[in-house]
Amino acid sequence: MFKQELNISNAEFESEFSNFILKKDKLDKDIISSVYKIIEDVSFRGDQSLIDLTKKLDDHLIEDFFISEDEINTSFRRINKEVISALEFSFTNIIEFHSKCRDSLNLESIDSDISRVFKPIKSTLLYVPGGKASYPSSVLMAAGPAIVSQVKDIYLTTPCIGGHINDLTLAAAKVAGIKNIAKLGGAQSIAAFSLGTESIPKVDKIVGPGNAYVAEAKRQLFGKVGIDSIAGPSEIVILANETSSPEFVAWDLMAQAEHDEDASSILISSSDEVIQEVKEIVKKECPNLERAMIIQSSLKNNGLIVTVDNLEQAIDLINRLAPEHLHLAFEGHEIDVNDLVAGIILEGADSAVSLSDYVLGPSHILPTNSSSRFSSPLSVEDFLTSSSKVSIKSEFNKDLYNELVNKTSIIARAEGLTAHAISAEKRKKD
């Protein structure tokens, strides 16, 4: 069922593992070209382009780009109260976590000559997928840090397939207090909010996961608009030893695979017994699941099992993958988490990825495609900018001030920037 099974002791392991990474990270030229054409069309034709593309791609004729408050309230009323309660519980934890993160930053100017001042961006777009499934959790995970950061204008957009937006998505938006919700999906929505059209405002930053077309649109439009990361198909690496629960591991792998056919589920283990039991559980349980076809396709196309002699050998493999999710499925501290690169690191059998996806507080919007090497999970920092602030009073220490002037002059003249030097020299104090 898994695409590949590799053993680190085999002579051909290095080339096979490298090929797996290369294929996983390979860019699709057809997608790049299609997205470029969509962006160009939206840029030139604005609203009409959005109408035509949505009709063609989502089978929906747009009359109003934004959902009315009545539509949001109607969807909210249709959702089971137990589900609403769970969403509210989740959102409370999200707000609490990100509030603590915000409080840990120095958001005010400190009483000093030189400091940093933080301020929220003015506007953001939260992209919420809507093709294969409904993701109300992504609404909450994106909205939470934006709200805590005090972003003034928060927009949400999600695909309106066949003229319908999932009630759960709208209910989650109401829980989060998001009112500006657009009926747009795909690359065209990213283009619209990046560039602006007659009806769609240009925003400062776009965040949230999406399919390959959404990810590529964010890639091509970065610079016109800020982005959180190039979030592509979801992925997990599970590191297991002989003490790991095969049942837990199997279900965590299937949980990741059920996102979509392009999701990647990887097991690295030092225990042959655990590997065999995991495979048997997946084979037995997968056919009974609601999204069995998607899971099977995901594992067949992107699933990987790697046998290692010991957990230490896994460190390099994990860091080369730099996965979105990393689950250390054992107790104890055989490996220092500070040595590992991942979007989120979950320690111990009880630290299920599903819990972090929904209710623990940290955002589940995470860097994918090995971008954990240089990107971080969505957080309050994504919605804040900072300015360096300088307020020097020379009268407090003339000698020190003159030294600053002197050293500036020396460096500026060395660079051939004479006006810089003179600008400083004019301020020398007697």
Description:
The chain starts with a strand and ends in a 5-residue tail after the last helix. With 430 residues, the protein is of the alpha/beta class. The strands form three sheets. The protein has a six-stranded parallel sheet, sandwiched between helices. The chain has a five-stranded parallel sheet with strand order 5-4-3-6-7, with helices on both faces. It has three domains: 4-26 and 233-364, Nitrogenase molybdenum iron protein domain (Rossmann fold); 46-230 and 380-384, Rossmann fold, CATH 3.40.50; 394-425, no CATH class. The radius of gyration is 25 Å and the shape is globular. Helix content is 45%, strand content 14%.
Low-confidence stretches: none
Largest sheet: 6 strands, parallel
Proper CATH architecture of the largest domain: 3-Layer(aba) Sandwich
Q: What is the approximate shape?
A: globular
Number of helices: 16
Helix content: 40-55%
Q: Quote the CATH topology of the largest domain.
A: Rossmann fold
CATH H level, superfamily name of the largest domain: Nitrogenase molybdenum iron protein domain
Sequence of strands across the biggest β-sheet: 1-10-9-8-11-12
- CATH class membership of the largest domain: Alpha Beta
Question: Helix and strand succession?
Answer: EHHHHHEEHEHEHEHEEHEHHEHEEHEHH
- Structurally, the number of domains stands at 3
What does the radius of gyration come to?
25 Å
Binned strand content: 5-15%
Count of DSSP strands: 13
N- and C-termini, Cα separation: 81 Å
